[in-house]
Amino acid sequence: MALIDQATLLRPIARETQRAARSIRWTEALAAAGDDAIALSVADMDFAAPQVVIDAVARRAQTGNFSYTYLSPEFYQSVCQWFSARHGWDITAEQIVSVGRVVEALPALLRRLTTPSAKIVVPYPAYGPIPTAVAASGREVVAWQLSFDGQYRFDLEALETLLAQGAEAIILTNPHNPTGRVWTGSELSKVAKLAAAHNALVISDEVHADLLRTGQTFTPYLTLVDAEASAIALTSPGKSFNLAGLEIANMVVPNPDLRAEVTAAVQAAGSHNPRFFAEVATIAAYSEGGPWLDELLALMDHHVGLVTQELATRLPQVTVIPAEGTYLLWLDCRTLGLSTEKLNQKLLGSGLVLTPGTAFGLGGEEFMRMNLAVPTQMLETAIDRFVTALQ
After folding, report:
1. In this structure, are residues 218 and 209 in contact, taking their beta carbons and an 8 Å threshold?
2. CA dist., res. 125 & res. 103, Å (int)
3. How many helices (H) and strands (E) does the chain have?
4. Which fold has domain 3-50+290-390?
5. 204, containing H or E segment
6. How far apart are CA 10 and CA 334, in angstroms?
7. Equal CATH topology for 3-50+290-390 and 75-272
8. Which overall architecture, per CATH, does domain 75-272 show?
9. Torsion-angle region of residue 125: left (phi > 0), alpha (psi -120 to 50) or beta?
10. What is the pLDDT of residues 71-109, one digit of tens each?
11. What global pTM score does this model have?
């Protein structure tokens, strides 16, 4: 029996519902691969948000009052309590600056906190909107390619060289998208020391922080020695609870002077008030959504194991990179001898839509990213199509 059949809180979203809602993932997949397509691309889920969140949003809507608002003390309390209980990270309400979306905030932050034409270090392969945001700010993306020996690691010598050449900031992603690495405290500490030595700003995108495989531990960047003076952490309940469309992200900035600059940056970009439903959704998710998330994580553990085992048996030419976090799998297809374009064409021809590795830039060639946040039966069908297309 599939774990989704045993779950009590996870409720699949029907394809028809996704289509009616004009889901980006499903709209693009159906256009690219036909009405029978399976969409395992964009990083959102085919599971309804926790019922406590749905109820909270419905109650807010029933008031009929959609005026401009401030965030409540309960909002800040829910964020602080979640990270303390879930990750042992103690933050205060005063350290939080809320914004709609991480990728909206990045250009504003870089314009305010770095010099014109500054070099910004981005680890590659990279989540595409990050280098796009850097370019939008008028800054230069400097690629820091992760080393790879079957698992991804920081190339610290390369980072030191880039910082010595004048790079002003580093944008980290932890857990890393697309590779699924969860950087250890030791790895991050070495980055923090180099950043401090070169007076570089660190922006740590931690929106996948809650999505860990069993046995993994998330280390918030701001808990490191040398980190608080010149670092910003970006967090959100969006990935954890499938709330991306509600648009709520929280920047944690312990340094008060830096926080004043961050606040000024987002206000200058036009962000003055929270998204109306995002506040109550966040409170409900962080206060009562833990059991829902735990069920999701158990299912994702199962899905990682399922794909890994099936491909090892049926298509061993494709290597599943060990996934420590996120609900995404990074698939190494290089031994198939096919270009990324050809890989994608074969998969689309089978009615299967993944994200091509080239979408993540340097180091993504001949890789594919697979979204596992779908019902098990759908994933099993997707595996069959994947194997058939690439055998």
Report:
1. yes
2. 17
3. 15, 15
4. Aspartate Aminotransferase, domain 1 (3.90.1150)
5. strand 201-205
6. 35
7. no
8. 3-Layer(aba) Sandwich (3.40)
9. beta
10. 999 999 999 999 999 999 999 999 999 999 989 899 999
11. 0.97
